[in-house]
User: What shape does this take?
Amino acid sequence: MNVYVSKNGKVSLAVGEQPKDALLFAPAKKSSTQLVQEDLSAWKISNSLIQERFTQATQRQ
Assistant: This one.
């Protein structure tokens, strides 16, 4: 797996030692479509929990 580095707004293949302020990252083994679907699924679950709890909190007894 390749590791990439972002330095001064430019992304390149990381080779050798990198400066402390460089951002190192490796690409995910998932496609961008899979990542978006997972993010959307997590958002839907979170949103439904918030709505459910808000409804419970505002119910009159």
